[in-house]
UniProtKB/TrEMBL annotation:
Taxonomic lineage of the native organism: Bacteria, Pseudomonadati, Pseudomonadota, Alphaproteobacteria, Hyphomicrobiales
SMART domains: REC
Record key words, sorted: Phosphoprotein
Domain named Response regulatory: residues: 7-121
UniProt KW Phosphoprotein keyword: yes
PTM annotation (4-aspartylphosphate): residues: D56
Keyword Phosphoprotein: yes
InterPro entries with a match to the protein in the record: Bact_response_regulator, CheY-like_superfamily, Sig_transdc_resp-reg_receiver
Name of protein: Response regulator CheY-like domain-containing protein
Length: 127
C-alpha cells in the first residue's frame, strides 16, 4: 500500500548520483524526495514527511555535516546516512560523532545503503 511506504530525502549535488540513489530507493519500495543542496532541503515544504536523510558530505554551499548539526540544534531526530567521495578520515570521525546511522564512501554497494536505511527506519518504528 502506497501510504505505508517510507519517505527518504536525498541531498546530493551530483545529478547522476542523485538519480541513481532515487532509482535504487524506488526499486526497494521507498518514496524519495530529491534536493540539490542543504539549503533547498531546509526550504522544503513543511508538510514533507521525510523519515530518513541520505546526505552528501561535500555539497556546493552548506556542507552535509553542517546541515546535520542544524537539524539537531532544531530538535530534529531525523536519521542521517552520509555518502561521500572524499577520502577524509577526520570527516568520517566528525560525522560518526555527530550521530549518523552510516557513513558510506562512493562508490558503495547498493545493499549497504538499503541496509542503513532499513536500520534508520527501525529506529523510528517498523518499516
Amino acid at each position: 500500500m502506497e501510504s505505508l511506504r517510507r519517505t527518504v530525502a536525498i541531498v546530493e549535488d551530483d545529478a547522476s548520483m542523485r538519480r541513481s540513489v532515487l532509482r535504487l530507493l524506488n526499486a526497494h519500495g521507498f518514496l524519495a524526495e530529491e534536493y540539490t543542496s542543504a539549503e533547498s532541503f531546509l526550504g522544503r515544504d513543511a508538510g514533507s514527511n521525510v523519515e530518513c536523510l541520505v546526505l552528501d558530505v561535500d555539497l556546493g554551499g552548506m556542507s552535509g555535516i553542517e546541515l546535520q548539526r542544524r537539524l539537531k540544534e532544531a530538535g530534529s531526530g531525523l536519521p542521517v546516512i552520509f555518502i561521500t567521495a572524499l577520502e577524509d578520515d577526520t570527516l568520517e570521525v566528525e560525522a560518526t560523532q555527530a550521530g549518523c546511522i552510516a557513513y558510506l564512501r562512493k562508490p558503495f554497494p547498493a545493499a549497504l545503503l538499503i541496509d542503513a536505511i532499513n536500520d534508520a527506519c527501525k529506529s523510528q518504528g517498523p518499516c
